[in-house]
Amino acid sequence: MQVKRHLIQERAADTIRTKIAQGIWPKHLPSERQLAQQLNIGRSTLRKVLDTLTHQNVLKKAQPNKKREIASPPTATHTPTSQRTVAWLSPEPFSDMSQTSLRIIATVKRHLADADVKMNIIHLPTRFAPKSNKHIEQIVQENPAGAWILQSMDLEVRQWFAHTQTPAVVAGGITPSESLNSISIDISLAGADATKKLLDLGHHSIALIQSGRAKADDTKLASIFNSLTTPVQSSVIPVASTPESIPTALEGLFQRKSPPTAIIVDNPRNAVGVVSWLQHHGYKIPQHVSLILLRTQPLIDFCTPKLAHYVFNEEEACFQLSQWTIDLLDKKTLSQQHIQLDATYIPGSSVKAGLTPI
C-alpha cells in the first residue's frame, strides 16, 4: 500500500506540473476541493502533494483562505513541449488500479526516465470511450504527448489512434489484424492450462472465481473454461470488489450438492479472499480443495500453503513498451509486432488429485 500511495502522489504532482507548464493554471491553482476532484484523490493526499511542490519551489507557501499561487508562472511566450513526454491512457483511475498495473506502470516509467522521457497517467473512462471520437480528441489535445501507451482500451479508441496516425502502442487487448504494435498478457491461456491440469488430476467439480467486469479478456477466460469443463460440473462465479462479495459467492457455492474440489482464481486479491474464507470454514488446501491462481504478486508469497500460480515476464513487457515509445518519440518507424507473453506455471503446494467432495 505504501508503494501505491507514493505512486498516486507522484502522479498527482506530475499532473499539476504539466498543467502549470501548459499555462492552464497561469497564476494559481483551483481550490483544494476542485483540485482534489480533478485529480481523483483525497484532500489529505492532495495536501501532501502540494507540500512537496512547495518544497520544490513549484508553488508558493500557502496563505490562509487563498488559492495556492504558482511560484514561477509561465510567460505569455511560453510554448509547452510534448516531444519527450509519453501518456499512459488507462480505462480506470489511478486510485483503482491493481497492484499489477501499478507495478508495470512504475517499471515503464523508470525505463523512460532513464532515457530522459516523462510519462503522465491519463484516465479515459470506458463509458465515454466508445461513444465519442470528440471526447478522445479532447483528451489528446488537453494532454500533449509525443507518444501514447493504450492500456486495455476499447477497439474504438485503438482505431481512433490508428486512423489519426497519433503515435501509440498497445498494452493488452488487441488482435493481430490491427496496425498498432501491441504486447499483451492473455490470462485465458493460463486459465485453459490450469483447467486442463485439474481435469487431468481427476477433478469433477471445478469453479472459476473472477472479477465481475465486462472486459474482453474476462469473457474469453470464462468461455474457454466452460468449453473445457463440459464433461464435468463447473461454475463461473463473478465477484464484485466489495468485501462481502467473495464470502457470499463461496457460501452459495459450497452449499450445493456437489461443492467444488478445485477452484481457479483470476487475481491475487480474490485469491486472498478465497483462502481466508476456506480456512475460516475448515476447508484445508489442498486436502479438501485444490487452488490455482492465474496471476500473482509478491503478497501471495506469504500465503500458506504456497499457491500454485502463473507468472508472466513483466520486465520483458515493460522494456518493450518503453523501447517502442522511445522509438516513436525519435520519429522512427516501428516494424509491426504483436507480442503475447507466455505464462509459466509454478506448482506450489495447493493442488492434488481430485477427491470426493466433502
Automatic annotation (TrEMBL):
Low complexity: compositionally biased ranges: 71-82
Domain of life: Bacteria
Classification via SUPFAM superfamilies: Periplasmic binding protein-like I (SSF53822), Winged helix' DNA-binding domain (SSF46785)
Transmembrane stretches, start-end: none
Keyword vocabulary terms for this entry: DNA-binding, Transcription, Transcription regulation
Region Disordered, annotated ranges: 59-84
Transcriptional regulator LacI/GalR-like sensor domain: residues covered: 196-351
Domain HTH gntR-type stretches: 9-59
Matches recorded under InterPro entries: LacI/GalR-like_sensor (IPR046335), Peripla_BP_I (IPR028082), Tscrpt_reg_HTH_GntR (IPR000524), WH-like_DNA-bd_sf (IPR036388), WH_DNA-bd_sf (IPR036390)
Protein's UniProt name: Substrate-binding domain-containing protein
Organism of derivation: Rubritalea tangerina
